[in-house]
Amino acid sequence: GIQKHQCDLSSVTSDTREWYYARVRASSVPSSSKSAWAMSRRFSPRWDTKISPPAVKLSSSKQGIVVQVKPPRVLVRKTHISVDYNIYVIHASGKEEVYKFAYCSHKLTLTELKPKTHYCIQAQTVIPRHTRSSDRSSAKCITTV
């Protein structure tokens, strides 16, 4: 009964210790004709789930730039005990600095930045236990106070 080219299987593949297969077939409602079943390769929610970058919210204060992160999808939060983040600070010159911090923090204050200077920030989700990481988030930019 799915009429899209993709579907989210997380509700039926929630045991991250298990391996799964999916099967699908096409059907035509008016004529009731159906294709043969097609079987997926074997997959694991723990190893095959695409990890998303975190959502990032920035604010500027006298102390510096406050970076708040919201973890990606619930599955990643439930599946992996240890979730860390890489925060990339991109200076106007193009120079990059990387800050690492753990999920439990939710917030990182970047200090020792030049006042009235434009910085762009990107974040990346890291699952250290499985040496996996997401792509970087899109850049968000802010000017220091």
TrEMBL record:
<feature type="domain" description="Interferon/interleukin receptor">
    <location>
        <begin position="49"/>
        <end position="144"/>
    </location>
</feature>
<dbReference type="InterPro" id="IPR015373">
    <property type="entry name" value="Interferon/interleukin_rcp_dom"/>
</dbReference>
<dbReference type="InterPro" id="IPR013783">
    <property type="entry name" value="Ig-like_fold"/>
</dbReference>
<dbReference type="InterPro" id="IPR036116">
    <property type="entry name" value="FN3_sf"/>
</dbReference>
<dbReference type="Pfam" id="PF09294">
    <property type="entry name" value="Interfer-bind"/>
</dbReference>
<protein>
    <recommendedName>
        <fullName>Interferon/interleukin receptor domain-containing protein</fullName>
    </recommendedName>
</protein>
<dbReference type="InterPro" id="IPR050650">
    <property type="entry name" value="Type-II_Cytokine-TF_Rcpt"/>
</dbReference>
